[in-house]
Design brief:
Distance between the termini: 63 Å
Largest sheet: 5 strands, mixed
Order of helices and strands: HHHHHHHHHHHHHHHHHEHEHEHEE
Helix content: 55-70%
Number of domains: 2
Radius of gyration: 23 Å
Number of strands: 5
Strand order of the largest sheet: 2-1-3-5-4
Structural class: mainly alpha
Strand content: under 5%
Amino acid sequence: MRALAAACVAIGGLHVLWARTVPVGENNDDAINLLLARALRQGAYSLPDGLGLPATFPPPGYPILLAPLTNLFEGNWAGLRFAALAASALLVVATWRLARRILSEEGAAAAALLVALNNVFMLYSGAVMPDVLYAACSVALFSALASAGKSPRRLAALAAAAGLAALLRPHGVILIASVGLAFFARREFRRGLSFSLLALLPSGLWMARNYAAANTSSGYAAYWSSMWSEPGFLVHCARVAATDFGQGLLGLVGLPFELLLAAAAAAGALIAYGAVRAVKRDLGAAAPAVYLACMIILQMAWRIEVVRYLLPILPLCWILLLKGLEDLAGKRRRAALGFVALAAAAALRLDVSLLAGRKAEAAWSPDTMAWIRENTPASARLQSTHEGAVMLLAEREALPMFAGAPADWLAEARHYGVGYILLDASASPAAKAAARSPGAAEVYRNAAEGTSVLKL
């Protein structure tokens, strides 16, 4: 017991150290959530981007939770990491509780350990974004489903929890559909329908608000539809598999793409086998299995390759993978234990080695943000790949980078009243080339932070 407590403290310490290296605003989405939380205190749900448009994404659940805290941590956003770390602890506990219903006691402990040590989770566990909290809520929901019983009150509570989860991340609608399907699989049609209607009510009200305010159900829908014109769908699917499962889930960073893809295929086969075995044992496991399958399909259809998108399915991947491993290994426990030990060692090596090259930072590009505040007009509008950070930390209106040829790009920037451009390491080569074309003059450079400001 003491050894387990010591391991929990050590892993928790690693999460705290990682959280200190990720400045609030660096991920951009964290800044946007904080801006919307602050706007809610003023009775609005829009960004200070100068366009005057109401925000239709992200969903309002996380900003609503953050709104009271923004009043306490105004100007000291790094202090909000405690809330993110609390959600991370909740995710590990929820993973263990769900895993106990599907795996052996040893397997459940292994699932919680591999989730806690995962580098993707470690990197984002202190980020002020809804991803980890949503993952924790979804896993807890699947765990509660097994003990929902026949009580109408418990059903209503389950539906309310699912509805709130759907306001954290848009794929919460898939979560609701998966749980509803589990009721139908158990031939509880009336309860499944009641659950689905109640759980979808908050999202339905949110979409109705979006239609009334901006004539669209969600900004995600338009964004997603624009991706289907892009070529190379199969190549994208292969890259997502190699990134999310080869690198993200298994931690095989640095291997050639072909080996990553092979490892991802092997992991996927084990997960699929584990899902089938779990459902055969208990129909209630159909909900997390269907949810995971739908989320993977969604990932393949979403034309952005970011390992962060592993977070919502990370616990389910490890639980079902270990289920497949347990059933295949049978009485050969040493083989299964050896795999878990190797996976944990690979994750820990990655956590420690990558952390060694990072330093604690309180804010993203603080000197650059200070220069913008002090040397640009209060009415200035900037353009940046970190537009959220600019609006939050530099207190200036900001728009994301446009795409296109330099002449068209500058014309569009002027059309929207952009006066300054902030370039950093994340800016694309096309954006840098466009920004350095005639009509843009550099007025500030910070080599230490890797940033420069150009004036149009």
